Amino acid sequence: MKENIQEEIIKLIKLSLADLKIDPVLWDDLRLDSPQDIKFGDFSTNIAMRLSKALKMPAGRIALNILESINTYFKKFSLGDHIKEVKIEGAGFINFYLSESYLHEELKDILSRDVKALSINAGKGKPVLIEFVSANPTGSLSVAHARQAAVGDALAKILGFLGFEVKKEYYLNDEGNQIDILGKSVSLRMKELSNERIEFPENYYQGEYIYDIAREAIAKRIGDSNLGDFAAEYILGLIKKELVDFGVDFDHWYSQKELTKSGKIEKVFAILKKKGFLYDKEGALWFKSTSFGDDKDRVVIKSDGSYTYLAPDIAYHDDKYKRGFKWLINLWGPDHHGYISRLKASVEAFGRDKDSLSILIVQLATIFRGGKPVQMSTRKGEYITLREVLNEVGRDASRFFFMSRRISSHLDFDLDIAKKETVENPVYYVQYAYARICSILRNGAIRLDKNANLALLKEAEEVFLIKKLLKFTYILNVCLNTQDPYMLTVYLQEVAEAFHKFYDLHRVLTDDEALSKARIALIEGVRIVIAAGLDLLGISKPDKM
RNA sequence: GCGCCUGUGGCCCAAAGGAUAGGGCGCUAGCCUCCGGAGCUAGAUGUGCAGGUUCGAUUCCCGCCAGGCGCACCA
């Protein structure tokens, strides 16, 4: 794999800083920026300004020293082929301008090797486990799960593209209190269906779907003691179907029941006890999570002898590491945020780095109907399901929508507006650009020629578009560092916008065959990048709309 | 009470601590004898309040105000 231009530039700056004998601790977080306005170059660094205070020297002076040093390497590495110019601008920014020949070379590479030409191996094969959704099999998936599903799936794909070895897992809470209540709920509904008089407790599952399961259980003559498992399995079937229809597939479904059976929880407890992180108090067994910064210690075995939720979770996460994963990513709803410190504490209790477990809180998507928020209660079965969103808004629009804000931001989603304004949804803007390109490529008399003379692409909109395409890996890197795919949705809209503007000002198919070929090559490049971006987001790319 | 998240034009949102705070919707006026008008061009309105850190703050920190969500021997 050839070296990425960003890596080249960063290396160049680092060499220069080292030459100037500047203490490496001052620039160990050196990062390349992408200026908002391309008049400030294609890449930029603010390192001179940041060093100014520590070196007691004006930023402009430092920038000049760095630039001089860079220039010596310039000749040595013949970087002039890729970089046209390095300039000091503004308060001390060092701006890098890519050469046209480099842009053409890269575009050509995209045409001949597809989007692989843009991939970088940031992950270097590091095994990552991303766990998300993991909803209890006691009801349909809600919009909160839907958002986590969209984000988790896209993040997994992006990390995979960046060279990580990614597995997607769903933790299945298929035993315990909630499953018992589920079984009892079904049992009561069965009696009701046989015309028995019943009292249905408020904390039981109230949803209509319980009747469906009850009817099924009656037909199959399921005994009372198996009703919980039966119902959980029935609901799991629905969940799996919903996820498939949403375009999300998991590599592995991890059963808590099997975890309990395996004896792994006892083994983990034996180790923790030996390390002195477990103690008895008031008839319960406690985990000393305060040793690792938690507010208070946490119960793992209740006084009635049963496990709290934390117990299998400690074993589960230990097992994730034991299966060889070096980086664990969990996507949780905000209702679990208080749980972060105790789980991280358990990771540390085993002597592992707590930063190897990333817990991403995905904020809720609040559904509005007719301008009013829809009250949700899982117990009562009153909530908007993933299924309903899929039916009303569609897969592409909803996935794009769920990812189009930072995961840390709330999402207000008015179904009525979303339906009404479906045409104005940004996803269609991007897909429209894609379809438009396909249409031109389909209908044009001139064929795609990978050896087209790209030097003919001299118009400002053409150059801007090529530069936009080459930002693809930079954006994916941002997604990696922010652990959030939303920047990709922003980027795709920018690519689509750059294309639409180019298209409106310049004809692709002209009387000039050489120019037409160059422009066909350009829009094919755009097509490839949009296709790759939409694939990573799990959104379809229709060649007609 | 404690904790987490959020506050950007009439509305929805961008801006990895950078350069003149960008887009969309809506409103107004234009643009296909020509590759898809689901597009493009032009026009008005601005970072909740008050401090601090920084060469530089929409972004980080403290306080306040407003909204959302949590604070179990539930999961």
Brief overview:
It contains 20 helices and 14 strands. The chain is of the alpha/beta class and 545 residues long.
CATH architecture of the largest domain: 3-Layer(aba) Sandwich
Oligomer: single chain
Instruction: Write down the overall mean pLDDT.
Output: 89
| Overall CATH class of the largest domain | Alpha Beta
The fraction of residues in strands falls at: 5-15%
Describe the global form: globular
How many domain modules? 3
Q: What is the number of helices?
A: 20
Please provide the count of β strands. Answer: 14
**Helix-and-strand structural type:** alpha/beta
Strand numbers in spatial order across the main sheet: 6-5-4-10-11
Largest sheet: 5 strands, parallel
Q: What distance lies between the first and last C-alpha atoms, to the nearest angstrom?
A: 36 Å
Tell me the radius of gyration. Answer: 28 Å
Task: Estimate percent helicity.
Answer: 40-55%
Within CATH, the superfamily of the largest domain carries the name HUPs
> Which residues form runs of ≥5 with pLDDT under 50?
none
CATH topology of the largest domain: Rossmann fold
Task: Note the topology.
Elements: H1 5-19, E1 43-45, H2 47-55, H3 59-77, E2 83-89, E3 93-98, H4 100-113, E4 127-131, H5 143-161, E5 165-172, H6 177-193, H7 209-220, H8 227-246, E6 252-255, H9 256-262, H10 264-275, E7 278-281, E8 284-287, E9 298-301, H11 310-322, E10 327-332, H12 340-349, E11 357-361, E12 365-369, E13 372-373, H13 386-393, H14 395-403, E14 411-414, H15 415-420, H16 426-443, H17 460-470, H18 472-482, H19 486-505, H20 513-537
Parallel strand pairs: 4-5, 4-10, 5-6, 10-11, 12-14
Antiparallel strand pairs: 1-3, 2-3, 7-8, 8-9, 12-13
Helix pairs in contact: 1-3, 2-3, 4-17, 4-20, 5-14, 6-7, 6-8, 7-8, 10-11, 11-12, 13-14, 16-19, 16-20, 17-19, 17-20, 18-19, 19-20
The chain binds one RNA strand of 75 nucleotides through helix 2, strand 8, strand 9, helix 16 and helix 18.
